[in-house]
Amino acid sequence: MLTQDFTNATATSATEPSLLFPFVLQLADTSLILAHRLSEWCGHGPILEQDLAMANIALDLLGEARSYYQYAAELEGKGRTEDDLAYLRSAVEYRNPLLVEQPNGDFAHTVVRQFLFDNYHYHLLKALKDGPDTHLAGIAEKSFKEAAYHLKWSSEWIIRLGDGTAESWQRLDKAIAALWRFAGELTTPAPAETALQEIGVVPDYATLLPAMQAYAAQVLAEATVPEPTAVFAQQGGKIGRHSEHLGYLLSELQYMQRTYPGMTW
Amino acid sequence: MTQQEWPLWEVFIRSKQGLDHKHVGSLHAADAAMAVQNARDVYTRRLEGVSIWVVESKHIHASNPDDAEAFFDPAADKVYRHPTFYEVPDSIKHM
């Protein structure tokens, strides 16, 4: 049972904007980068119905990213817009965790990446929607319903692949071995998050972990795949140290704005 | 890769509380649970529905178009089957 309490929260919507800005930006970058990765499947999905399912999830995340970017631009108060933040920053300025920038790989890799993210995203939003920052709580409230569906989608695919054929089991097992190391960063607070956790604006991630771990264990058990143990957590994305993949991703994502500055359509 | 195709399912969506489910199209899915989820992703993207039914296409048995004359034409001249030949008493409202 999740018992995050915000009773020590001294903050309301009037949280120091300069403290809140990097965290909101991190949430925005995370949703944007994963949305872009999922959109790469568009037209290449294993079957039409799943092509659409991934595009739907990508659009949900993109919408969420926009809300965060708009709020971040407001918090920063330097006249930058959501587009400036999304399209005109370099890779080292991005604050997304490493997990979401990892390449799609095969369908199993995409599903495992999504499952690790969804499990974290769902539990984070569940806490944030009752948080003291009303703007953030509003975005979380709306996105929580979407995240609940995403988690259902990725959980069911983990189970189907694991409990499917010998080949799908093997591919799932491989994807888990490749991606589980990126899960730890999600719930390891970066300095920007620690500062907000101290004043109760962001939940203590330790309070989210029991529910997340129990859920993951339950899904993997149903999928008949072993859960990796003693995984070294790769991290760095949240402080701007990214894998090489992000640069390639951004060069495609930002191409239009870089080539035709200020273009709209 | 197995070359086996997923079976085809017919999708029925109810647009509002109280209305009936209407056939909206078909899709492929490995089983009923996946079919409902796929239907959600394919057919309710624009707020079309509040309820989904799916049924595997092979379970739908249709009349044969070649039988259309024998099946349906005989009903054409039997207007007395419509309940329109009764005198409705004045005291009955809302008929």
Automatic annotation (TrEMBL), chain A:
**Molecular function GO labels:** phenylacetyl-CoA 1,2-epoxidase activity
Q: NAD: is it a keyword of this entry? A: no
Known InterPro entries for this protein? Answer: Aromatic_CoA_ox/epox, Ferritin-like, Ferritin-like_SF, PaaA_PaaC, PaaC
Q: What Pfam families does the record point to?
A: PaaA_PaaC (PF05138)
Q: Which terms are listed as keywords in the entry?
A: Oxidoreductase
Cite the EC number: 1.14.13.149
Superkingdom field:
Bacteria
Record's keyword annotation contains Oxidoreductase:
yes
Q: Which PANTHER family match?
A: 1,2-PHENYLACETYL-COA EPOXIDASE, SUBUNIT C, PHENYLACETIC ACID DEGRADATION PROTEIN PAA
The name this protein goes by in its record: 1,2-phenylacetyl-CoA epoxidase subunit PaaC
Source organism per entry reads Hymenobacter aranciens
The gene coding this protein: paaC
TrEMBL record, chain B:
A Pfam family this protein belongs to?
Answer: PaaB
**Origin superkingdom:** Bacteria
Natural source organism: Hymenobacter aranciens
Recorded hits in InterPro entries, A to Z, give: PaaB, PaaB_sf
Q: What is this protein called?
A: 1,2-phenylacetyl-CoA epoxidase subunit PaaB
Taxonomy of the source species:
Bacteria, Pseudomonadati, Bacteroidota, Cytophagia, Cytophagales
